[in-house]
Amino acid sequence: MSEPVIEVRHLSKSFGTHVVLRDVDFTVNPGDVTCIIGASGSGKSTLLRQLKTCLTPHGTVSGTVCLGGTPLKDIPFAEQARRIGFVLQHPDDQIVTDKVFHELAFGLESLGCEEKTMRLRVAEMASYFGIADWFERDVGALSGGQKQMLNLASVVVMRPDVLILDEPT
After folding, report:
1. Strands 162-165 and 84-87, how do they pair?
2. Residue 64 to residue 8: CA distance in whole angstroms
3. Could you read off the pLDDT of 14-32 as tens digits, one per residue?
4. Which helix (H) or strand (E) holds 18?
5. How far is CA 99 from each of CA 4, 8, 16, 45, rounded to the nearest angstrom?
6. pLDDT of residue 1
7. Once rounded to an integer, what is the mean pLDDT over residues 116-132?
8. What secondary structure does DSSP assign to 40-86, as a single string?
9. Taking residues 117-128, what's their average pLDDT?
10. How large is the C-alpha radius of gyration of the chain?
11. How far is Cα 22 from Cα 11, in angstroms, rounded to an integer?
């Protein structure tokens, strides 16, 4: 059996005296689709943000989160950016550029992807998601649903090992 992609052991998170997560354990194996379901305010987004350290909110945390057997805290941000795709709950919180094409290319460019490869991967994703005719559009002119689609395409273009979707519907 192969090693888990994500392994969470005894994860607890609190903000001051308010405990949000208490002794959470789960494993995600290669090819798994895992859903986290709960009431609004129950800590789902807080839990998901523990799976990528640059998104982890301040507070007290204990326990271990591993990616491919390595503690997440020991994996550099650039490697996490390449291996962990994360689509935020609110699309406007994730968009960082002005044009659709720039948004699709941003992550690859930030990781130093060769231009030819970047252009090919951006074109593939745009075609796959049916958004190639949006290339020159201003991201501010997109609807909320179009922004969600763009965010998903912008993450998938990086071909992450893990794809995390916070409130994807």
Report:
1. parallel
2. 6
3. 999 999 999 999 999 999 9
4. strand 18-28
5. 37, 37, 40, 28
6. 59
7. 95
8. TTSSHHHHHHTTSGGGPPSSEEEEEEEETTEEGGGS-HHHHHHHEEE
9. 96
10. 17
11. 6
